[in-house]
Amino acid sequence: MSLFPEDRRPQIVKTAIGAIVDPIERFLEFIVEREAIRRRRRAEGQLAPWTKDQILQAYSFCNVHREDDRTTREIVRLWLAPLADRGHPDVWFASALARETNLVEMVQDLGTPLPWDVDHFVAVAEDREARGLRWSSTAYRIRPDNHPEARGQKKYLYVAHRVLTPLWQARKTLRPREGDTLDAFHRRLIKCEGIGGFIGGQIVADVKYSGVLRSAPDWWSWATSGPGSQAGLNRALGRPVKAPWDESEWRRELTWLHGEIADDLVKAGIGELHAQDLQNCLCEFARYEKLRLVEGTARRFVPHA
């Protein structure tokens, strides 16, 4: 007897990508089609639908190149590029401030990120909440309840006083320096409260395009894992989706996968992906497979004006 009534039985979603049996080939085709959607929509100005894939039509996925995502584009345009053009040593702090909110409208309301003004940050966050607006995105989850001193405290107060202010106070120690690797800079960041491996990785990805990190020897090869990219690498390698990873093992297999699909990405016109973009694609691929296999849901696609 079926565990599901006939009208509720889970069905694998039929898509062109989903029909590909080999998981690495399916991952590769996911990357190719996601980039093709961006080009049809942005570069060629085509009208929707930009793909025949039902999942990619209906749900929101990050771009193949992180720098093409709306939030990243705006953070770079408003804050990071102007600071980098002036040679400011603390572009990284502006990135940390932006990623702790990860909301373009909050970045716009804050205005100038440097020097750090904790009272201004709190006032803007309070004002937005009073007007029924969010001060941070739901994409990155900030969990002050993990810290006993922060329980019951407004999250923006936790971010302002326990995360960003200590970062600013330690800026001379934390900022990128000559001879740094991305890994070394990341290791310094994640020792700070409120900067876990994921947020630290986002900061690294933001600032690797400016200053001394542009010449980091691991610019192309470094990435750090998160739950999404661990699940995505499992999916791409045909492993059980919840199979655990040791970080060094995950990086080794990511490097192998990187080499395995590199020529195909070039032939598809995408070019070479650095490891952090590949890691990001794995996160999105994990979400795609979850939807394809009807194992969960995700945020629906709503185009920005």
Provide a short characterization of the protein structure.
The protein is mainly alpha-helical. The chain has helices spanning about 25-45, 55-60, 70-85, 90-100, 105-110, 120-130, 155-170, 170-175, 180-190, 195-205, 225-235, 245-265, 275-290.
The number of domains is: 2
Low-confidence stretches: 1-10
Helical fraction: 40-55%
In whole angstroms, the N-to-C terminal distance is: 50 Å
pLDDT averaged over residues: 91
Percent range for β-strand residues: under 5%
Reading the helices and strands in chain order gives: HHHHHHHHHHHHH
Q: Total number of helical segments?
A: 13
Strand-pairing-aware structural class: mainly alpha
Biggest β-sheet strands, sense, barrel: none
Mind telling me the C-alpha Rg? 20 Å
Please report the total strand number as a whole number.
Answer: 0
Shape: globular
